[in-house]
Amino acid sequence: MPCSDPIRDNTDNNDTENPRNGPIGSIEGQEGHVYSLATKNGLLYIGSESKNIRVWKDLTQLTRFKSNSGFVKSIVVYKNQIFSGHQDGKIRIWKVSNKDPRVYKRAGTLPALKEVFKRSVKPSNYVEVRRRRTALWIEHSDAVSCLSLDEDQGLLYSGSWDRTVKIWRISDLKCLESINAHDDAVNSVAVTVTGVGLVFTGSADGSVKVWKREIHRRRTIHTLSQTLLKQDFAITALVTAGEDEGGIGATVYSGSSDGSVNFWEIGDEKVVKFAGVLKRHKLAVLCLAAAGKSLFSGGADKTVVVWRREGRIHTCAAVLTGHVGPVKCLAVAEYTGGGGRRWVVYSGGLDRSVKVWSASETAAEDRNRTVVVSPRHWRVSAEAEIDGGRWF
């Protein structure tokens, strides 16, 4: 559903009586393009094509920690652990110091070195990968493009350009299973938030697949349940949204390289049914995020679209414009300052910046507006010294 022509937003985003959708600030000067964002407990984690993962709190850089590999493609946070997926096919684990919240130390790597040594002695543990090479089935042989958590089950899912999805048990860091999921790079993986045991994968081969998790003889096994979509355009992003107040089932959204967002509903007996398509972006949709009754989509057209959802009805509430490069990643946190249910939205771009936005579920007066970042909004530099197929 299209929004109207751009107009400049001149409202005060701190107005709790009349909350708006608009800019809060901009974090400039990242060390390369921003590929991944995660937020939890008031902290924002920024991954880019540099070796540093930066940690921000209240638009102030708290610290940064360094990896041995650049291109941090994905980040998720589980309790006191941070998992980061990298271009070199490794997943690295970090923990914050109990004594100093500015100190992060590497706590391990997936797969763990002892697991690699243990399995390397058996030829049956090797599988054929691209270019006629073999590798252990517990190892990704190409970039880890996406990570997703099932916190209730204590499972971590990793998708890779090697066309596989691997399932890790967080308690002992063991790889439980490797799925040959697609015919091309896996660009996104998403777990349902309603505990129905479904996992969704999206690929450069243009398909979205549903995998059902089952326990068989104490083993976790994923079997293909449905193929939701098969198209000529790459699937670039996936997100799931929980059951809403009206009793509508959980919703699954997929972003495509043609600029569309398809969505499905999970019905009875875990059957996923097509529910509609959203079209607003002029170029590829590169990232999606969902919170409450809001859906956020970021695209190669340099915009973030805010959608308000009521069941199957989606309204374009605002188009956030300020990036000068494609918007590659999104993260959302709930705003605790009152004034109705509101969100702080972080968008990372291939312009080396992270924009920070306010979004309100009650800002009905913002519908069909395009909000442009005004020069009056202050910016934060990320360069200050700190103490202590395939889509991009």
Q: What does the radius of gyration come to? A: 20 Å
User: What helical percentage do the residues reach?
Assistant: under 10%
Strand order of the largest sheet: 1-32-28-27-26-25
Number of strands: 33
Task: Please outline the major beta sheet.
Answer: 6 strands, mixed
Give the integer mean of the pLDDT values.
Answer: 84
Q: DSSP strand (E) fraction?
A: over 45%
> In DSSP terms, counting alpha (H) and pi (I) runs of 4 or more, how many helices?
1
Shape: globular
Spans where pLDDT lies below 50 across 5 or more residues: 1-18, 364-388
Helix/sheet category? mainly beta
Query: How far apart, in Å, are the first and last alpha carbons?
Result: 27 Å
Characteristic key phrases:
single chain; 392 residues; mainly beta; six-stranded mixed sheet; five-stranded mixed sheet; 1 helix; 33 strands; 56% strand; globular
